[in-house]
Amino acid sequence: MAVKAGAVLHRAQTLIQDNTGIRWPLPELAQWLNDATREVTLYKPSASSDSVVLSLTRGTRQTIPAGALMLLRIIRNLESGSTASDRKGGRAVRLVNRDVLDTQHPDWHSDGPTRFTLGVKHFTFDESDPTTFYVFPGNDGNGTVEALVSQAPPPIDEAGTTLADYEMDMPLPDVYANAVLDYVLYRAYSKDASFAENMERANAHYNAFSSSLGAKTSSEFSGGANHAPYRVTRDRVGTGGQ
Fold first, then answer.
1. By C-alpha distance, which of 75, 64, 55 is closest to 130?
2. Class of residue 27 by CB neighbours under 10 A (exposed 0-12, middle 13-18, buried 19+)
3. Residues 68, 121: one domain?
4. In terms of domains, do 67 and 30 share one?
5. Model pTM greater than 0.85?
6. CA angle, corner 42, sides to 162 and 28, nearest 5?
């Protein structure tokens, strides 16, 4: 059973000893819960991932759907189908280092030396532009691929005044419930940060939040395609059988 937003808020009220919502009203806690889900997705883009079908445009440069936060990976070409149950898969698509393409095929963005085709063999991705990726060979405008993208988690309604008003599923997988709770507590105690004890509690809960996400990286986008375990640093890219 999915963890309900109300259950997270109830735990927060219990821990801050404010079950009546006098010091920290429920709409305020709900707002911080929404902040928490966005913060989790910033640290862990895969926490809010979705498998989508992308219709490719002509050329090498492609974009993910509007509203999606960043590309996680391109999985395969699709021969047909738009829903998860009727997709007919084609050739797998591999990640390749862009430097390899630029070195071996300096004209790969042009429909000339490397002809644009229906199928995709490789993709490359730059985390500084998380909604854009490039395919090789360039597409003829008729290709379709299956991709994994990070989506912004849908916010819960913050207007409820009783726990019963928050009996909707938390917008992230259940494994992130504790991290979300720690973030809510961090924001709650930060409200009274003028008291040294509350500041210490706020810092403790934020550290717990960060630790539970494994947020010990200096990378701004720690879950992007280039940080996937299958990253290709050196690869021979050809237009034939590769």
1. 64
2. middle
3. yes
4. no
5. no
6. 20
In a domain, 238, yes or no: no
CA angle, 206 then 186 then 184, to 5°: 115
Quote the domain boundaries for residue 113: 48-151+223-227
Q: Which amino acid is at 51?
A: S
Peptide bond into 171 cis (omega under 30): no
Q: What digits encode the pLDDT tens for the residues 129-165? A: 999 999 999 999 999 999 999 999 999 999 999 999 9
User: Do both 108 and 173 map to the same domain?
Assistant: no
Contact 136, 123 (CB under 8 A): yes
Distance of CA 93 to the CA centre of its chain: 20
The answer as to whether 241 is a domain residue is: no
pLDDT by residue (tens digit) across 35-67? 999 999 999 999 999 999 999 999 999 999 998
The Cα 72–Cα 41 span in angstroms is 12
> Are residue 38 and residue 158 in the same domain, yes or no?
yes
Both structure tokens of 15: 């821990």
Inter-residue contact 114 to 108 (CB < 8 Å): yes
